[in-house]
Design a protein that fits this description.
It contains 8 helices and no strands. The protein has about 230 residues and is an all-alpha fold. The N terminus and C terminus are likely disordered.
Length: about 230
């Protein structure tokens, strides 16, 4: 008598458990992960390109504060969503981070490539936080309107940042930097929209019920209980 061992269902259950844990995780933990990655990246840049500690200390402190604060909010978050009253926090802190970088000349730094490439990383990340901010107010509207709001608002900040650099000794305003900013914003917002679509599709498939289409996080539809009771 042959015995068969079913392995696939076990693997599927582990995958479902993993995806469910990611879906039900507070979005604040994702924000904390982004800030944490940027913190480690800034530290790596300091050592690799011989950046003076006094030039990079404040930006790293801002990133570190974002990492810890977002992790704390994720730990205290019971709604599994970023409310409109708090979603501006990561955005404002990251704007201050970019502003603190623009206020420095980084004299003596040994760069083997164009510093313009940092604009892509900075404004890619800025687009993620702008997306969180705009989604809290626009919800799941048309992607074109959402994309336009993120890119235009980010580009306006980039323009203001270039204007600010024009008055910093050792720095200058470069119109080409705006182009780099727009490219980074476009890629970041596009990545956010793709991730959001995948996130919602997996939530609907694994949870097996409709999801709420408001706020920045994915939550089970609140009206489900009332419909069942009716």
């Amino acid at each position: 008598m042959e015995r068969t061992i079913e392995i696939m269902p076990v693997k599927a259950s582990h995958a479902s458990f993993m995806f469910r844990a990611l879906i039900e995780m507070s979005p604040w933990f994702w924000v904390s992960a982004i800030y944490g990655a940027q913190t480690l990246g800034a530290i790596a840049v300091t050592f690799c390109f011989k950046v003076k500690a006094q030039d990079i200390l404040l930006p790293i402190v801002l990133l570190g504060c974002g990492t810890v604060a977002a992790a704390f909010l994720g730990y205290r978050d019971r709604r599994k969503a970023m409310t409109p009253s708090l979603c501006w926090g990561p955005l404002v802190l990251y704007v201050l981070f970019i502003f603190s970088l623009s206020h420095r000349t980084f004299s003596g730094a040994d760069l083997s490539f164009k510093a313009d490439y940092f604009h892509l990383v900075e404004f890619f990340t800025l687009a993620l936080f702008l997306s969180c901010f705009w989604q809290a107010f626009l919800g799941h509207g048309k992607s074109f309107i959402f994309f336009s709001c993120v890119v235009v608002s980010g580009a306006l900040f980039g323009l203001a940042d270039e204007f600010h650099q024009a008055y910093i000794p050792g720095r200058d305003a470069n119109p080409l930097d705006i182009l780099w900013d727009v490219v980074g914003l476009s890629i970041g917002c596009g990545a956010y929209l793709l991730a959001r679509r995948f996130y919602e599709a997996m939530a609907a498939r694994i949870l097996g019920r409709p999801i709420e289409e408001s706020g920045t996080g994915i939550r089970e539809e609140a009206a489900e209980g009332s419909s069942e009771s009716g």
